[in-house]
């Protein structure tokens, strides 16, 4: 691993964490949900549109995927929100978990399908 990759992941992580924080300030607990859903879509789309086709440098792929999106989405915030919602009732926490999980899966699938549809041939094709 070279310094360019390390710096890219560090800067991406810093920006992704700040973006998630700002969403949570702006939207409260829903901000974490939106961050995780948007991040699911973005990671799938970026992976299958840009990374798989070799359109970006490896250091930039790491900065965007691992750094930015990794910090933008977070399992620990998801888990904390689910526990916090438990005080409103078990259905609220289960609902939040299901929307996060199934919604994230659906948006990742959408990102994959759109990337394949509009991305053209892969680098190996």
UniProtKB/TrEMBL annotation:
TM regions (residue ranges): 31-51, 58-82, 94-115
Q: Where in the cell?
A: Cell membrane
Q: Does the keyword Nuclease apply?
A: no
An annotated GO BP: cellular detoxification of fluoride
Indicate whether Ion transport appears among the record's keywords: yes
Topology relative to the lipid bilayer, per the entry, is: Multi-pass membrane protein
Q: Which GO terms describe its molecular function?
A: fluoride channel activity; metal ion binding
Q: How is its activity regulated?
A: Na(+) is not transported, but it plays an essential structural role and its presence is essential for fluoride channel function.
Keywords associated with the record: Cell membrane, Ion channel, Ion transport, Membrane, Metal-binding, Sodium, Transmembrane, Transmembrane helix, Transport
Specify which residues bind Na(+) according to the UniProt entry for this protein. Answer: 70, 73
Q: What GO terms fall under cellular component here?
A: plasma membrane
Query: Where does it mainly reside?
Result: membrane
Which catalytic reaction applies to this protein? fluoride(in) = fluoride(out)
- Family note: Belongs to the fluoride channel Fluc/FEX (TC 1.A.43) family.
Purpose: Fluoride-specific ion channel. Important for reducing fluoride concentration in the cell, thus reducing its toxicity.
By what name is this protein known? Fluoride-specific ion channel FluC
Protein encoded by which gene: fluC
């Amino acid at each position: 691993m070279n310094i360019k990759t390390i710096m890219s992941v560090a800067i991406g992580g810093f920006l992704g964490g700040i973006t998630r924080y700002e969403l949570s300030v702006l939207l409260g607990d829903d901000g974490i949900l939106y961050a995780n859903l948007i991040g699911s879509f973005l990671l799938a789309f970026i992976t299958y549109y840009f990374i798989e086709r070799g359109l970006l440098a490896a250091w930039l792929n790491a900065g965007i995927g691992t750094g930015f999106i990794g910090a933008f989405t977070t399992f620990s915030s998801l888990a904390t929100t689910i526990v916090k919602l438990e005080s409103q009732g078990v259905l609220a926490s289960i609902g939040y978990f299901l929307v996060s999980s199934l919604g994230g899966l659906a948006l990742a699938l959408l990102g994959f399908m759109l990337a394949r549809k509009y991305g053209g041939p892969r680098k190996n094709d």
